[in-house]
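Tokens as discussed.
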């Protein structure tokens, strides 16, 4: 070993023979060696098909690294893979090997929220669930070139390929059928291949009676590594109250005890678990998966730290010894189905993927920064995607000294990965998906350099637009809006606009406001007309002088009294999780009362509705305030229930944008009353002096990815109202 490689190993893997806490590697060193191995793999791509199982394991590791590293290149590489594959799995419909890439697709969907990323995977599993193979599990079979022959999980490696893909699809859709099928099939495979005496899995039924030269049964290191890795990736997402969780935790614990007990002295397991002398070279892929699983078990409190940590750190030390100066990971047994001989310098993509997964849990295991656990509970019996959690920094600091705005971060409690967060107005914001009635845990860490966290893949955005008549615009990954400035109040002596809210529709999840204003520079010709849909989005809605999509007003003497365009603006935040700003309106007359208004508007990622908090100055007079949706046509369909109202409207502006649905939701306890008047759907609220008007308003698009029909939009509004009435419960432990 030359000096350069020795320094790398010592820095990233120093553990000492006793594996004491003082000998642990630092998180920065672990991340550095992970990146080194990943960079080599990206620079030396495998010629195998991009949907193959080998690369499915690599992609899982690349996603784990992308959730820790400050550079976007690992996520960018996975985006390139997904686009190349058109988000398709391999051709063999039932074969778990061809499902492995689906894990990455689901994880990319959680970052980018593009439905096409998981659509083919859903179609694949929906077909399998509708046409299941009911024949008994019966060992190796030929799937056929067209992949039409049904296959169950008859080989243990399949438990890393298929189950985590199904579990992740369940987690991102909330559809329990995927989880139920996974549990059913895992238990069937376990009944068939798990040896209860040795607490290990046979690779397949051809090994039931085979023996090693020492008379022991044949148990393959990588095959059992696949299983333990699969157990981790299932347990990460299996609900805590699931009736079969004890089964999965029990099997994980049994295997962990066995694997620790047979670990060789140098920390690395051999290809044959019960006859390590058969092939004496240490093997990296099996060792990586075992290291990953055991470290995760310690981090979750499923395994005793004092008992298992020395084994984990010895394994990590051995693995770092397999990383060459240029980053190549060696000692990976070639593709096979059993323990076999291999060359010391051999590598393969699944070995690198397993190594990166191991590193993601070692990174957390060796973390030396203080933290607290936060539990968040969804009391609704409904799936809640992209929900924002707010933590008061002062309350957090009381339990976590050092929790400062500049150095606080959020980590997933079930996996070694950072979660996108934002500090705003003395609060720590982050988001997560919640399954029905789910309680999730998060780790809040102090002392973190936020500049070294992964960059956001999605973001909200807001800005003042002086180059276009004082517009103020804001957007997120779903929708965009603007409010008009003083330059557009009157043109050529004609009142052109007011304080109503305009809508911009978008196809993309990425910010497009600046793109729209670039288009508007040449608005005289069709090519520069931003009312047309250019494949990214367009200005299809018409607000004009009406309330548009959620503009406020005063209701008095049985009519609306509205102000001018906004007078001054204040940008509070342009993202990433929440855009926030304030607009001030000069006083106007409302049935003899002088009224001025300040609107505080926020929009979170994942929400089609912005939050409006309107404060009116009336000289101490009580008022009735209104929020409204303009009804553009007699053909517009209005639906109103409880504390929400929705419109489904067709537009022909530009090149025919389809339907632009808009909606209002107001707090059920706020006393709001629905009224239809002056071509508007209104919610009226009586306010005492100093009390703000609070409501949510927003829009969608039938040509976008989320609302193909009216039923989808109304279901969204109904679900939004239910979530508003049942906020997430947060408990700082």
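Sequence:
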């Amino acid at each position: 070993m030359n000096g350069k490689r020795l320094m790398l190993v010592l820095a990233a893997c120093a553990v000492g023979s006793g594996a004491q806490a003082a000998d642990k590697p630092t998180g920065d060193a672990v991340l550095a060696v992970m990146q080194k191995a990943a960079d080599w793999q990206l620079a030396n791509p495998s010629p195998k098909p991009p949907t193959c199982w080998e690369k499915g394991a690599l992609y899982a590791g690349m996603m784990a690294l992308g959730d820790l590293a400050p550079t976007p290149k690992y996520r960018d590489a996975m985006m390139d893979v997904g686009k190349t594959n058109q988000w398709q799995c391999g051709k063999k419909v039932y074969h778990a090997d061809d499902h492995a890439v689906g894990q990455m697709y689901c994880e990319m969907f959680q970052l980018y929220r593009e439905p096409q990323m998981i659509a083919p995977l859903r179609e694949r599993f929906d077909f399998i669930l509708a046409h299941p193979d009911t024949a008994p599990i019966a060992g190796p079979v030929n799937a056929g070139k067209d992949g039409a022959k049904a296959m169950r999980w008859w080989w243990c490696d399949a438990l890393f390929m298929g189950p985590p893909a199904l579990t992740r699809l369940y987690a991102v859709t909330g559809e329990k059928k995927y989880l139920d099928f996974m549990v059913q099939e895992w238990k069937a495979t376990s009944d068939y291949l798990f040896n209860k005496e040795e607490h290990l899995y046979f690779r397949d039924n051809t090994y039931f009676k085979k023996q090693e030269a020492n008379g022991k049964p044949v148990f393959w290191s990588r095959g059992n590594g696949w299983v333990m890795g699969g157990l981790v990736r299932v347990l990460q997402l299996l609900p805590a109250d699931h009736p079969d969780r004890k089964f999965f935790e029990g099997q994980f614990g049994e295997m962990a005890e066995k694997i620790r007990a047979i670990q060789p002295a140098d920390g690395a397991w051999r290809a044959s678990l019960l006859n390590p002398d058969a092939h004496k070279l240490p093997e990296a892929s099996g060792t990586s998966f075992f290291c990953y699983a055991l470290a995760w078990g310690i981090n979750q409190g499923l395994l005793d730290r004092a008992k298992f940590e020395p084994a984990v750190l010895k394994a990590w030390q051995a693995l770092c010894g397999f990383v060459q100066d240029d980053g190549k990971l060696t000692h990976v047994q070639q593709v096979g189905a059993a323990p076999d001989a291999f060359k010391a310098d051999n590598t393969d993509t699944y070995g690198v993927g397993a190594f990166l997964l191991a590193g993601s849990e070692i990174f957390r295991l060796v973390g030396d920064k203080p933290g607290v656990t936060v539990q968040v509970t969804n009391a609704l019996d409904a799936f809640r995607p992209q929900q924002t959690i707010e933590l008061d920094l002062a309350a957090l600091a009381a339990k976590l000294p050092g929790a400062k705005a500049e150095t606080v971060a959020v980590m997933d409690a079930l996996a070694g990965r950072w979660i996108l967060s934002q500090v705003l107005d003395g609060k720590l914001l982050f988001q997560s998906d919640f399954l029905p009635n789910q309680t999730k845990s998060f780790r809040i860490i102090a002392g973190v350099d936020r500049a070294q966290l992964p960059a956001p893949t999605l973001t909200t955005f807001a800005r003042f637009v002086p180059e276009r008549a004082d517009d103020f615009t804001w957007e997120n990954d779903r929708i965009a809006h603007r409010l008009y400035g003083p330059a557009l109040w009157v043109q050529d002596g004609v009142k052109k606009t007011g304080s109503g809210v305009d809508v911009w529709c978008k196809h993309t999840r990425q910010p497009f406001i600046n793109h729209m204003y670039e288009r508007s520079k040449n608005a005289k010709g069709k090519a520069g007309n931003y009312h047309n849909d250019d494949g990214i989005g367009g200005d299809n809605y018409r607000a004009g002088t009406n309330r548009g999509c959620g503009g406020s007003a005063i209701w008095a003497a049985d009519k609306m009294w509205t102000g001018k365009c906004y007078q001054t603006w204040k940008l509070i935040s342009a993202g990433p999780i929440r855009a926030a700003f304030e607009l001030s309106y000069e006083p106007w007359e409302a049935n003899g009362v002088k009224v001025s208004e300040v609107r505080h508007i926020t929009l979170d990622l994942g929400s089609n509705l912005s939050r409006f908090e309107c404060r009116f100055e009336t000289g101490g007079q009580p008022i009735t305030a209104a929020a409204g949706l303009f009804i553009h046509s007699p053909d517009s369909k209005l639906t109103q229930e409880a504390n929400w109202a929705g419109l489904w409207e067709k537009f022909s502006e530009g090149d025919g944008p389809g339907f632009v649905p808009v909606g209002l939701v107001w707090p059920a306890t706020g006393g709001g009353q629905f009224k239809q008047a002056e071509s508007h759907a209104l919610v009226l609220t009586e306010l005492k002096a100093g009390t703000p008007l609070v409501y949510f308003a927003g829009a969608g698009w039938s040509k976008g990815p989320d609302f193909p029909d009216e039923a989808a939009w109304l279901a969204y509004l109904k679900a939004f109202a239910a979530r508003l009435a049942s906020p997430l419960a947060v408990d700082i432990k």
